[in-house]
C-alpha cells in the first residue's frame, strides 16, 4: 500500500503539467466567456463540493452528541 502511494506521489511530482492541465482548461474557458455564466456555475460547484464534508462532519457530531446524551 505504501509503495503504491509513493509511486503515485512520485508520478504527480514528475509530471506536474498533467496534474494542472484541467485547471488551465477551466481557467481558459472561464476567462474567454464575457457573460460570466460559466464562472458562476464553477463557483457554485466549488461551494457545493466544499459544503458536503462540513455537513457530514456536523451530522457525525450530532449523532455522537445524541448517543452521549442519552
Automatic annotation (TrEMBL):
Keywords: Membrane, Signal, Transmembrane, Transmembrane helix. Residues 1-21 form the signal peptide. The chain crosses the membrane at residues 45-65. The keyword Transmembrane applies. This is Uncharacterized protein. It comes from Flagellimonas sediminis. The lineage of its organism: Bacteria, Pseudomonadati, Bacteroidota, Flavobacteriia, Flavobacteriales.
